[in-house]
Amino acid sequence: MTSRGGLRGVGTDGSDFKPREKVASHYQMSASLRSEVRKLNFVHLLIWILVAAQVTVSHLNLVSHDTVSMPYQWEYPYLLSLLPLFSSSLSLPKNNISYLVISMISSGLFSVAPLIYGSMEMFPVAQLLYRHGKAYRFIFGFSAVTVMYLVMVVAVQVHAWQLYYSKKLLDSWFNATQEKKKK
Fold it and tell me: Residue 169 and residue 92: Cα distance in Å, rounded?
């Protein structure tokens, strides 16, 4: 053991660190992956807030429809993507594999599927915009289809990384569980 202000113990030259205990690699990986999932959950929450704000503002007529247009159909099921976010957040503190699996499955259903549908729903409008320069929906003066496609690009990346890191985290937790069962 080291002392803060005193001399080093007799017979130690500082090279006695190898027999000391080390943190197992799956625990180190679990901690770093958990941190990444938390960051991605935060970004997912920000995207969800943007979509929810657009839906709320347009339905409550808080501003004119010239400023914020009516939402596309894919935005309504995307609002359910809060469920995988919550189950992912619930799984992190106690390494709950069940909640993480539910999060991954529901992420595909409530996050990725609406984004795929939305890209197909908005494609004819985007085609009309880029071929003929005609836009019919606007969000603060910008073409709604352009703004929503930008949101979708970011959302697809966030959800892809969430699924990737969640799978890695699941593997890490599963391996730790299997090692405990062997002992």
Answer: 10
Residue 9 confidence (pLDDT): 58
- What does the DSSP 8-state code read for residue 109? I
- Collapsing DSSP to helix, strand or coil, 71 comes out as coil
> Strand, coil or helix: what is 176?
helix
Q: Are 26 and 161 in contact (CB under 8 A)?
A: no
The model carries a pTM of 0.81
Give the type of residue at 32.
Answer: S
Helix (H) or strand (E) holding 177: helix 144-182
State how far the Cα of 161 lies from the Cα of 36, in Å rounded to an integer.
9
Decide: 169 and 30 in contact? Cβ < 8 Å: yes
Whole-number pLDDT of residue 25: 74
Which residue ranges in the chain fall short of pLDDT 50?
none
Note the pLDDT tens digit of each residue in 58-82: 899 898 888 888 899 999 999 999 9
Of the chain, the end-to-end C-alpha distance in Å amounts to 30
CA distance 52 to 46: 10
